[in-house]
Automatic annotation (TrEMBL):
It comes from the Eukaryota. InterPro entries: Bud23-like, Bud23_C, Methyltransf_11, SAM-dependent_MTases_sf. This is 18S rRNA (guanine-N(7))-methyltransferase. Residues 242-253 have a biased composition (Basic and acidic residues). Residues 212-272 are annotated as: Disordered. It comes from Macrostomum lignano. The keyword Methyltransferase applies. S-adenosyl-L-methionine-dependent methyltransferase that specifically methylates the N(7) position of a guanine in 18S rRNA. Requires the methyltransferase adapter protein TRM112 for full rRNA methyltransferase activity. Involved in the pre-rRNA processing steps leading to small-subunit rRNA production independently of its RNA-modifying catalytic activity. Important for biogenesis end export of the 40S ribosomal subunit independent on its methyltransferase activity. Locus-specific steroid receptor coactivator. Its main location: cytoplasm.
Length: 272
């Protein structure tokens, strides 16, 4: 398996001048990022009326060099992007993108006033919040800081669509749990779920009420319904596995926990 960039260096170091330039000149990356940006915009379910769209302001989280911003502009939307990589933002400025830009570590929270964004998109950024590059950076705390501030800066009834690449099911559930614990409704939309290569995960989050979840795409080009995915139930096997994994990450040399087995989380029958 190819190494994941987020497990090697923090994003502001990984995307230096060399890597940022290579990233934004790779035609395949541009195509993939553009397609995922267009899909994220589709999942926002915004009005098609150009007059209404031109009055909306969309936040682009992890905007990079402006590939996703170009898709937002093409869709007739105004946008403001944040990214932690100065090198990526410099390329965006050189490309004269039509949105506003700011450097921001989303793990510290978003620095915007309440209710100022009508929608949010993010492409390939969220997974960076699942890693810490120093002992003082707790992934759970960083996720909560991001989702809490994201919820606050979105208008009532706004939707966020956040595409990401989870390393495993545990990481996916941690991000989903963090979002739901901060007040969001919604869940996960997974396109091409049967394909390991083409599979794409989107967190679709609403700030108010319970809207129907968008349909996911499948290999045949069709759509199928998506159920809202709820956070792990306390005491369930998934919850126990998550807690054990968190403990092992903090205490790598400890042997206090029993090994995982098919009996993990299994309820015992009462003794009489």
């Amino acid at each position: 398996m190819a190494s994941r960039p987020e497990s090697s260096l923090p994003p502001e170091l990984y995307y230096d001048d060399k890597e940022a330039k290579k990233y934004t000149q790779n035609s395949r990356i541009i195509q993939i990022q553009s397609e995922m940006s267009e899909r994220a915009i589709e999942l926002l379910s915004l009005p098609e009326d150009p007059t209404i769209r031109s009055s909306l302001l969309v936040l682009d989280v992890g905007c990079g060099s402006g590939i996703s911003g170009a898709a937002l502009t093409e869709a007739g939307l105004n946008w403001f992007g944040v990214d932690i990589s100065s090198s990526m933002l410099e390329i965006a400025l050189e490309n004269e993108v039509e949105g506003g830009l700011a450097r921001c570590d989303i793990g510290h929270g978003l620095p915007f006033r309440a209710g100022c964004f009508d929608a949010v998109v993010s492409v390939s950024a969220l997974q960076w919040l699942a890693y810490s590059d120093r002992s003082t950076a707790n992934p759970i705390r960083r996720q909560r800081a991001f989702f809490t501030s994201l919820y606050a800066c979105m208008s009532v009834g706004a939707r966020a669509v956040l595409q990401f690449y989870p390393a495993d099911e545990l990481q996916l559930q941690l991000l989903l749990n963090s979002a739901m614990s901060c007040g969001f409704t919604g869940g996960l939309v997974t396109d091409y779920p049967e394909s390991a290569k083409a599979r794409k995960h989107f967190l679709v989050l609403d700030t108010a009420g319970t809207r129907p979840m968008p349909a996911a795409q499948d290999e045949a080009g069709g759509r199928h319904s998506t159920k809202q995915q709820q956070p792990m139930r306390k005491g369930s096997k998934a919850w126990i596995m998550r807690k054990k994994e968190q403990y092992r990450r903090k205490n790598p040399d400890s042997k206090a926990l029993p090994s995982d087995s098919k009996y993990t989380g299994r309820k015992r029958k009462p003794r009489f």
